[in-house]
Amino acid sequence: MATTGNWWDAYPAPKATPERWTHEQVAELIRSNAVNGVDYAIVDVRRADFGGGTVKGALNVHAQTFYDELPEFVAKHKTVSKVFFFCNSSNGRGPRSAAWYQDRLDEQGITTSKGMVLAGGIKAWVASYKDDLDLTEGYDAAFWAK
């Protein structure tokens, strides 16, 4: 019987160790005069478990296909100062995607953007901001009650 590895085994191991910001720090950035898509971008890399709400203005780009989409993603976001990635708890897919992004920036000598991690992921975010419509969109209490 053949065993299968993890989906990320098909891709190079990330080299970078992206900076982690707390949900409080990211919320403060969103509430500031910073502009989403210019000063920062937020990327939700959940796929099958995507639901229950997300950070307001976040892009949904699946971690499982992100590495293959890196050339286009870098071309589009290379001038965005801080690009935050997250998943459920930001212990796997989010940091891995942030590191792949940072690795590609480093390989190309791009210093105008930085791959970062939203520490605690969406779980920490909704625990603090589920009722704040300036910070969270699509919150579904029934999803989190499961």
Could you characterize what this model shows?
It is a single chain. The protein has helices at 23-31, 63-77, 93-108, 121-129, 141-145; strands spanning 19-21, 40-44, 54-55, 59-60, 82-86, 114-118, 136-137. It has 146 residues and is an alpha/beta fold. Helix 2 (63-77) runs parallel beside helix 3 (93-108). It is globular and about 40 Å long.
Quick tags:
5 helices; 146 residues; 5-stranded parallel β-sheet
Topology, please?
Blueprint (H helix, E strand, L loop, with lengths): L18 E3 L1 H9 L8 E5 L9 E2 L3 E2 L2 H15 L4 E5 L6 H16 L5 E5 L2 H9 L6 E2 L3 H5 L1
Parallel strand pairs: 1-6, 2-4, 2-5, 5-6
Antiparallel strand pairs: 3-7
The whole-angstrom Rg is 15 Å
Mean pLDDT: 93
Which stretches of 5+ consecutive residues score pLDDT under 50? none
* Gross morphology: globular
Task: Write down the oligomeric state.
Answer: single chain
Number of strands: 7
Largest sheet: 5 strands, parallel
- Give me the number of helical elements: 5
- As a percent range, the share of strand residues is 15-25%
What's the helix-strand series?
EHEEEHEHEHEH
In short:
The chain is α/β, with parallel strands linked by helices and 146 residues long. 37% of the residues lie in helices and 16% in strands. The chain contains five helices and seven strands; from the N terminus they run βαβββαβαβαβα.
